[in-house]
Amino acid sequence: MDTATQTASASTAEPAPLPQATGYFAQESTLPFQAPDFTQIKDEDYKPAFEQAMAIHAAEVDRIADNPAAPTFDNTILALEKSGRMLGRVSAVFYALTGSNTNDTLDAIDAEMGPKLSAHFDSIALNPKLFARVKAVYDQRDTLGLDAEDNKLLEETYDNMVHAGALLTPEQKTEVVQINQDLSTATTEFGQRVRNATVDGALIVDSKEALAGLSDTEIAAAAKLAADKGMPGKYAIALQNTTQQPLLPSLENRETRKALFMAGYDRAVKGDKDDSRALIATIANLRARKAALFGQPDWASYVMYDRMAKNPATALKFMEDMVPALAATQRRDAAMLDEQIKADGEDFSVQPWDWYRYAEQVRKAKYDLDENAVKPYFQIDRVLEDGVFYAANQLYGLTFKKRTDLPVYQEDVSVYTVYDKDGSELGLFYFDPYQRPNKRGGAWMSNFVDQSHLYGTKPVVYNVLNIPKAPAGEPQLVSYDWVETMFHEFGHALHGLFANQKYTSLSGTAVARDFVEYPSQVNEMWASDPKVLAHYARHYETGEPIPMELIQKIDRASKFNQGYDFGEVVEAALLDMKWHALTPAQAAAIKTPADVDAFEKKALGELGLEIGLVPPRYRSSYFNHIFSDPVGYSAGYYSYLWTAMLDRDSRKWFRDHGGLTRENGDHFRATVLSQGGTQDYFKMFEAFSGHAPDVEPLLEAHGLTGGDSGK
Ligand SMILES: [Zn+2]
């Protein structure tokens, strides 16, 4: 923005006027709930909007820092909280789209804005005049008579500025700013390379015979994808973001299995333009150097200050305690699969690309459960409306109404108004279920609009998934894994929808990394609740409810194959910690792609787990969670396991108290789901469950207790 207009008021004591905003993002959306108006937003709007929004935010912050009045909570902490609203608006929409519906233009803006935004936020966090005012308020906090939420906002504002470097020397601050910008550039590029490598890494197969075992629908999808890629007559299998690929169990041809597995496993390590390893070396080095500037031994120690677990030692001990039982389970499971392979008349020992095929066979033999026999009971609309929404109705009294009057960013996206138990409007829910080449892998939730009493805004939340889309004319069925993921993501949505905070900074899912997955994991329990299942799991042709015995089988089978299912997550979490326990000297020794490979090999080898048979859920080269964002889940992937501990303990509470009832739902809502980031996490958990978190229900759920593991 043109700042020359500031001179107009230079002769008075009044602050300079703020730069003028133009374009779509200059004002709040006028649609219901301030929902984004996708009919009005064009790709070329984002860049000027970011630039204007940053200029306005910077001017707002300067006003606070230059205020001649003595610092108070209102004129400093509250004023800061209220600054940067336009930047919040444009970011919320832009990052939703770069995640779920991107294109080359948006990618280019993303790459350009990353370092600029990083520098912008650093200039605020490292503004000495501003920090002096924040510190002055913070130092008097015991005498201000603030309520709990105000006090929490004050503490977080202060802690975050200190964490950003407010107490560093000017030279150190300069270095931190440079590191942050370099990190932003490197991590954005990492994410783009992994996405390209994933799309380009699709396995191309010449003959239909090589795909034996796949359904006609899956083969048709593979033929279409190959044609879309300009290879008519061939077959292409798209990669999913994880190491294991969902079609592996069905493929009868072992060579095809190996080829598909390796296409995923060797993603972004081919020495071409999408190779991500040099970026990993850069990122690890930058993080280790930054931690050292803050007097911390490593990045993990630096980054965990606001986590529930608080330090790497607590998280590491929690995981390492599981390793012996887990390793034993992996070995026992592998031996069991080798038996199955022999019984199948084959002569080889199990490899990662065989694992799920033979695990499926054992699962069928042992539990008589066939994933493909289950799928016809899970039709996507029924799962959502009669399953996910129904559970929320039974627990919390919520109701939902689909609406078609609000614009969406892609034709497959649907929108619902969510009504509270008293019939009042609670918020909006967007649902974007299907896999697309321009969508990041995995599944996630976020907000278009954050709930805030300060602004009178209600939450506008969205869930994004990557469910393979059925060919036109075929029923849209989903695997049970995706059913659980739908419940999971909606658990995040509930956390956002039940937000009841004054401040957006503390609202809804604005909680610690190792707490945010807790409500979502708890919500998964309702996917297999008999009452919920009976309501949504109906055969798409006959309408018959899923047989109770199939439900019992799903339940019994849930402890099966934990050496792999649980093991690959523990390994990824430990690999993450190893990358982020590097001192600057250790990190400096990792320079080339070969160094990255060597480090990964060594780190995984040290874990004491059966890595050759059960590789981590993500290899370093495509571990987006920890390398595609300046912080992201770095030194935080353990959070999934930590919150699983909170989750399993909470499921036990629900079961002990009668399960799916309004009373139980209301208690969970009151103690956890509506609290946002306003409370101490251990206290919040205790307010719900009545005790400190206990790891036993987690170990039990994964069959890792006593001598019964691996069954
Ligand atoms: Zn989640």
Task: Explain what the structure shows.
This protein is mainly alpha-helical and 711 residues long. The chain contains 28 helices and seven strands. A five-stranded mixed β-sheet has the order 3-4-5-7-6, sandwiched between helices. It has a two-stranded antiparallel ribbon with strand order 1-2. Helix 4 (104-125) runs antiparallel to helix 7 and helix 16 packs across helix 17 (480-497). Zinc ion is lined by residues 488, 492, 517, 520.
What's the arrangement of secondary structure elements?
Layout: H1 46-66, H2 73-82, H3 85-100, H4 104-125, H5 128-139, H6 148-164, H7 170-200, E1 203-205, H8 216-228, E2 235-237, H9 254-265, H10 277-293, H11 299-303, H12 312-320, H13 323-343, H14 352-367, H15 371-374, H16 380-396, E3 399-403, E4 414-419, E5 425-434, E6 444-449, E7 460-467, H17 480-497, H18 513-524, H19 530-536, H20 548-557, H21 562-579, H22 584-588, H23 593-605, H24 624-627, H25 639-656, H26 662-673, H27 681-689, H28 696-701
Parallel strand pairs: 5-7
Antiparallel strand pairs: 1-2, 3-4, 4-5, 6-7
Helix pairs in contact: 1-2, 1-3, 1-4, 1-5, 4-7, 5-6, 7-10, 10-23, 13-14, 13-21, 16-17, 16-19, 16-26, 17-18, 18-25, 26-27
Bound molecules: zinc ion.
List keywords for this structure.
Glutathione S-transferase Yfyf (Class Pi), Chain A, domain 2; mainly alpha; 6% strand; two-stranded antiparallel sheet; single chain; 5-stranded mixed β-sheet; 28 helices; 711 residues; 7 strands; binds zinc ion; disordered C terminus; disordered N terminus; Neurolysin, domain 3
